[in-house]
Amino acid sequence: MAKGKDTPYYIGLGIIILIFGYFAVTNVVHYIEKDKVVDSNRSQDRDPVADKFLKKFNKVPDFSFVNQNNDTITNKDLLGKVYVVDFFFTTCPTICTPMSVNMSKIVEELEDYPDFQAVSISIDPEYDTPEVLKEYASRYVEKDDSWHFLTGDKQATYKLAREGFSSYVGESQDSIIKFEHSGNFALVDREGYIRSRKDEYGNWIMVYRAVQENVNDLEPLLPELIADAKTLLNK
After folding, report:
1. Helices (DSSP H) in the chain: which residue ranges?
2. Average pLDDT over every residue of 174-200
């Protein structure tokens, strides 16, 4: 008789165990799927991404400058090409050299694409004449047809940097440094629009870090930029 009285107890306990097991398995599956999504998002930030995942920012404003070969280069000349832009000056004692070194790595990586172009625009046009730019270019590239070093009107240059690329440029109070500018690269598509991806935190970035930031120990975003340039070049 005692055994018979215990039977409902065991049935109830079994039901509780089954219910608990169901929810436990459901939660495990949920977290596994959640981790997959997180990992997918993280890999999307680092790996090559499709064109639809590269945000389209503003179109590059009109500009007209002269390159190291005394050729006039305008934004219209670059339509149909994918190009990377930075702002620099040849006498820069700080970040310009590592920026140019990293740009040369980009040029080398993408040299097999005839529609790729690198563009470095001087923020010190009074000193950086085409002749000066020609000598500077020889330090970083053998065939300079894939890399324009541009110089022109100072006011137009600063306006292009600030309004076109949201890139800081200005004169420095330091007599040695002379000028200040952001250490970034911008990627432009065939239609003349600035393009970029999300960063590792899921935030859209307009430009790619061109040099290492020692304060936050952040590496340049060269692999990401090269991968995204290839995506646009292969469209």
Report:
1. 2-46, 96-109, 130-137, 154-159, 222-233
2. 89
Q: Which residues are annotated as a binding site?
A: 92, 96, 181
What is the pTM (predicted TM-score) of this model? 0.77
Q: Place 145 in a pLDDT band, splitting at 50, 70 and 90.
A: confident
Q: Domain with 144 in it: what CATH number?
A: 3.40.30.10
- For the record, the structure tokens of 174 come out as 């330091």
Residues 6+ apart with CB under 8 A from 53: 44, 197, 198
Q: How far is it, in rounded angstroms, from Cα 111 to Cα 190?
A: 17
Provide the 3-class DSSP secondary structure of residue 184. strand
| Mean pLDDT score of the chain | 82
Among 68, 75, 124, 76, residue whose Cα is nearest residue 96: 124
> Residue positions in the annotated binding site for Cu cation?
92, 96, 181
What is the extent of the structural domain holding 35? 1-46
